[in-house]
Amino acid sequence: MWFLTAERLSKNKIGEYLGRNDEHAVNTLHAFLALLDFGQLVFDEALRFFLSLFRLPGEAQQIDRIMQNFADRYTEAHPTTFASADTAYILAFSLIMLNTDAHSDQIANKMTLDQFLSNNRGIGESGSDLPDELLTALYNNIQANEIIIEQREYIKSVREGWLGKQGGRVKTWKRRYVILSGNVLYYFKSPKDKAPAGFLPLENIEVRPHTDKLTFELLPAAGHASIKSVRMATDKKHAGGFEQGHHKSFMFKAASAEDLDLWVEAVRQFTVEDLARGNTIRQSQQSIKSKEGASAKASGRE
User: Fold this and answer.
1) Taking the CA atoms of the chain, what radius of gyration do you get in angstroms?
2) pTM for the whole thing?
3) What is the set of domains in the chain, with CATH numbers?
4) Which of 12, 32, 128, 289 is close enough to 124 for a disulfide, judged by CB 3.0 to 4.6 Å?
5) pLDDT in tens, 208-231
6) Catalytic residue among 16, 59, 203, 273
């Protein structure tokens, strides 16, 4: 492919193009990955090689799209290593976080091997554990050899602030600091926290405001059974680790009607359908305006 052979081609521009969500760019990303043979590479080697071919773009939704496709491709090449591409997707972000932790001068207390193993408990298929031997090898490789990532600060805020968040299994409300970065929604226990309590890509979802209760709900879009999300484990054995989220929907509560409108508008603006699975983009100004108009009419505010 031209991307792999052309000289003097900007790696920044390659990353920006591969991260786009239009049909041609998505097809190009698929073709780009199809030319890469990950069959003989362990996970960190494949990730390192992949990220050496371009610079990650600065927007979180672009990074999410690229990493999801990388995870899909690696899982195809290593079906006995990862039963699900979601596992590879979560582990890729875990390695990026470990890479930053290990090689940033601003982080004094470095993550230990035991902490890394604990952090990644239960990320396998149906909550299973990946082999300690695999995770130990990945940890040692990252410690010994930094993955050079051009864009380290991959969480760039589009909108942020305090919201109430309802629990997934236990329907209690807790105050969370929420950051919308592109089409990824991160929520933290405190804005000072280095790692989020959880996050969800805003793909294949519907945003439903409940104006009388100052809440908005994120639901699977028509034709989709569930929401893809990741959260930090809360049990003592795996505390601080990653696991797949348990939410069938997400409910957030704003402080005022104005704040609710701003959050709903922002989330809708950056919600997309997954072109990699043959769907169309939901992010169009016309559809956003028509939905907001219908919501306003239903609530009597039009």
Assistant:
1) 20
2) 0.49
3) 2-144 (1.10.1000.11), 159-298 (2.30.29.30)
4) 128
5) 999 999 999 999 888 777 777 777
6) 59
